Amino acid sequence: EIVLTQSPGTLSLSPGERATLSCRASQSVSSSYLAWYQQKPGQAPRLLIYGASSRATGIPDRFSGSGSGTDFTLTISRLEPEDFAVYYCQQYGSSPTFGGGTKVEIK
Amino acid sequence: QVQLVQSGAEVKKPGASVKVSCKASGYTFTSYGISWVRQAPGQGLEWMGWISAYNGNTNYAQKLQGRVTMTTDTSTSTAYMELRSLRSDDTAVYYCARCLWSGPSDYWGQGTLVTVSS
């Protein structure tokens, strides 16, 4: 099983700042089968990024994904108030797994 | 528009079984699969498994093998997830999501809270 480790656990930032979230895999993620999801309290996760760097439908361009192999990054260029949430990475190869999540909170 | 609507909250005793439904609309049901993901209170997301709505092929998380069964009813565009021999640590919100095999989950149900308590 591929273990995904997300860091940091919590990111304290102000609106307008840049957020950089990391997701490291225990082994190479095939064909960049890496997604990022946003989850707000009491809501289902929402797909942001798939294929490591492709934005899902309707996702603002302040969200971007990068990386390959074992190291992946989600960047939010300028935090809006609605972006404060928990973010999960997922590898969706043959046995999908999720990372433990990064909480982006208001500083 | 794509929608996945799940059944309501359940309270079960340890050792019992639960069956959660997920009714899909707004797309061709058999062109996608359904994945099931759960989230224990205050915890992260756990992938449980996937079923093809086209041919019923399944892939279950190893830790749940033998306790979980996923099925679909193409006549009603509904997916089901049954979990048996429930334990207290099965208490969680259970989500269904649309996805292709080896694909991301692009639409999610609203979640179903399953509480296991004596």
From TrEMBL, chain A:
Transmembrane segments: none annotated. Coiled coil: none annotated. GO terms for cellular component: extracellular region; immunoglobulin complex; plasma membrane. Residues 1-90 form the Ig-like domain. GO terms for biological process: adaptive immune response. It comes from the Eukaryota. Keywords: Adaptive immunity, Immunity, Immunoglobulin, Immunoglobulin domain. Immunoglobulins are composed of two identical heavy chains and two identical light chains; disulfide-linked. This is IGL c586_light_IGKV3-20_IGKJ4. It comes from Homo sapiens (Human). The lineage of its organism: Eukaryota, Metazoa, Chordata, Craniata, Vertebrata.
